[in-house]
Amino acid sequence: MAESGLIIVDKPGEWTSHDVVAKMRRIAGTRRVGHAGTLDPMATGVLVVGVEKATRLLGHLTLTEKVYEATIRLGVSTNTDDAEGEVVATASAADVTAPEIHKGVAALTGAIMQVPPQVSAIKVNGQRAYKKARAGEEVALAARPVTVRQFDVLDIRAGGDVVDVDAVITCSSGTYIRSLARDLGAALGVGGHLTRLRRTRVGPYDVSLARSIEQLSEECVILPIGEAVAAAFPRRDVTAEEARIIGHGGRLPASGLGTGPIGVFGPEGELLALVEEQGRVAKPLAVFVG
User: Fold this and answer.
1) Which residue intervals define the domain Pseudouridine synthase II N-terminal in the entry (predicted)?
2) 155 tagged catalytic
3) Fewer CB atoms < 10 Å away: N or C end of the chain?
């Protein structure tokens, strides 16, 4: 059986997240592989892949903060809000000034309501939005609350009727960088779309830990599940008796470590479970022993 843990992949462009999972199943020698947080085919960078028991962590890792490097092109709108779509409108951005761009970026920073792209995986009446959009249907998606903690402009490059804006964005789970590009362009009156996207961090796992598919084909480096949990969540060490209780799916008294997932470790330092505190008790989310 393959070792349980995380593989931090530097996803190449043109690959889907599913392509990466399929490849990692062959490399790791197990079918029990999944990923946390989908990346679009045009995007590159950090894709967290779980192997064996670590697949139980993925839903919790998906909810963590993420960091992206992006390039937004002002003056051109597409039907997907990125460079993979068809151009639907153009307007000269030659007169857009740097102060106007910074003002538009500031308005998209903090807690905002964001409408996802029509071509997204969100379900509408049981069907993925992108399937409806590609069938020619108009998809009405509701705005959702997201948090853009940082939206830092690194460079502004003008060229003819378009302006390219390089930025680093730190945001909550569920934030669409394509939508930020679209909304910045709309606010400036010239339209916009995303031309480059690289994810550099998912929770505590940054690009310095990531390895290319080629590197992983030569050496499959797996971050052990205990180390992965200790890096991502608060840690709680328990006694032998508490370890026995949690190992059987029982509840423990709350420790006051917070409302999110907490990693529980036994007397020998072994990972036992992820728990969530509700009132006075800590309830198991996933048990890794037995």
Assistant:
1) 25-177
2) no
3) C
